[in-house]
Amino acid sequence: MSTTTAAGVVHEPTFLNGDEFHIPRFELLRQDGTLHPQAAAPEFERETALRIYRAMLFTRVLDERMMAAQRQGRLSFYMQSTGEEGTVVGSTAALDPGDMIMAQYREQGALAYRGFGLDEFMDQLFGNEHDHGKGRQMPIHYGSKTLNYLTISSPLATQIPQATGYAYGQKLAGEGLCTLTVFGEGAASEGDFHAALNMASVLQVPVVFLCRNNGYAISTPAHEQFHADGIAPRAFGYRMKVIRVDGNDVLAVHQATRAARKLAVEDNQPVLIEAMTYRLAAHSSSDDPSGYRSRKEEDAWREKDPILRMRRWLEAQGWWSDDEEKHEQETRRREVLEAMKAAEKRRPPALETLVTDVYAQVTPALAEQLAALESHIRKYPDAYPKSAPYLDRDKATGGRDHG
Amino acid sequence: MAEMNLLQAINNALDTAMAANDKVVCFGEDVGVFGGVFRATSHLQEKYGRDRCFNTPLVEQGIIGFANGLAAQGAVPVAEIQFADYIFPAFDQIVNETAKFRYRSGNLFDVGGLTIRTPYGGGIAGGHYHSQSPEAYFAHTPGLRVVVPRNPHQAKGLLLAAIRTPDPVLFLEPKRLYRAAVGEVPDEDYELPLGEAEITREGTDITLLAWGAQMEVLDRAAEIAEKEGISCEIIDLRSILPWDVETVTESVLKTGRLVISHEAPLTGGFAAEIAATIQSCCFLYLESPIARVTGLDTPFPLTLEKEYLPDHLKVFEAIKATIDY
To answer: Would the ipTM clear 0.90, i.e. be above it?
Structure first.
């Protein structure tokens, strides 16, 4: 069986490099908040638009506050989504709440949109006894079963083939749901990316691959990551539909994702979206971008701020005002600070959470190791302030498993 | 009861699991219409359709990444890696993802439904890349179960248990025995316990411990030893991780001597872990040092495979040396 198209025969060596393909960028909103003249006004309910905007704004406020807290030494680590809120929130808003999201690590806006509680954010960031992840992972590794948001895993790109598999399960279940997986242009260099796209295309599964092309993988600029015209052309190699969108244009991201979701769910076909955006903040609290890019470059992108752009559009609709903006920002800032104070004070997870969830049941060997550790901690309680003070209380309550 | 070889028993277990639960899905390279290069998945596509038994592209990291996601979704994937020698592109997905899925999410998500089947071991003139026994790499990874059957009856019962346990399992199949090991296998659905070793022969002078294809090597060595008046107790570990310390300890407390054998290289092999644990549990009862009979610390060879492998004669010599210590 031939698997290549009949594109004719040539009689001298003929090389192609893909430059024949020209991938346009889909945009609706200009930076001043007005629509491009040829663009049709998107169908948007006021309520949805405001929910998107509030989630973006909340993400910005959370990031600013938590980065400051990290600088004050209150938090071990943090990662901001600044500049990319439009890509993340715009795409999430186009999904069904039942759709699975498998994100990389800079997608807190998706959780904000879906209604992750402020305390849930804080408890994870501080790894306290209420953290769903039981204090086992670094800050920003959120997860929510009820909101269909897979717990973040640090290794890059591993979530991409998992999304293909998850979506295959959704296809078999036949419930009309899909999976959205998000990753950076750097992670797209990993083998897992290629494995995932090829398998999704061969097996025809309802998955949307969303690449946040934000210009940098830590310090490595995109032009040192790939030689091609971005990530989008890779889709052709898998005969997959692809769209490139202005990632700082929330309306365009939303519309593109909604259309991609329709293809995925109705035709069981995977789709790649490349969202062109920019990581305005550092890679993480451990990074300093001044060593690899200019202030001028950053300022140029600050002009294209997705939040500002949407705010202007909302104001033009008469759906948002300066007063509302001021009130929203102040309220959210206050709430974040209050929640942070409360989360900081919560106790760490119980000692036994060290050995639970490795297997469905704690094995005899792990129970032994825990008992030996507990005896040791009782001998040197001052050396283990996160567990020693709680040992007796936890024993009395039957060694509850927190979270 | 029917007489089956080990491959037929595996095929029968998969058939049983797929019939009992329509969430069970089998896939891997050449697994679909062809039924796998060893034919372990023969006729499953015919019987259960292309959605539940299918070929994947040739990409091990993709197969296991896909399997992790599918298991997280609630399906029960049985992924085949064609040879254990080719599992390493999937090492990241297994070690960093499969093994940690439940732990890192605080039990919000898990891939407990996942079973990874893969043929391992030498003796088939397979050279470096169709002969390795990689169990020790995975035994160093909390969160995985590693299981190895020794015969057709064990293979069906352990594989059914592996598919149904709420933990992810790496199921290593001794490919040298695929057609060589033949035995009675019950027609009905049954499971054998994971994490439990089995004493396959009782004895008083020395304990011999192995798993998988190495079990028949122990049997032959014990036969020779018996003729010299040495009574061997033989244990099949069955589960490498988590492993049954209690059964091995009890036996060694009784015999005072232990010989462990595996095909994988000596250094860092799983016998080292067992030896360390057993000397700690049985120190004052040991009559002699714990002996290891293993492959050499070399890549797996081809022409001199027989010389490399820990055969019954090498095991017999270790038994004598341990008894005469």
So the answer is: yes
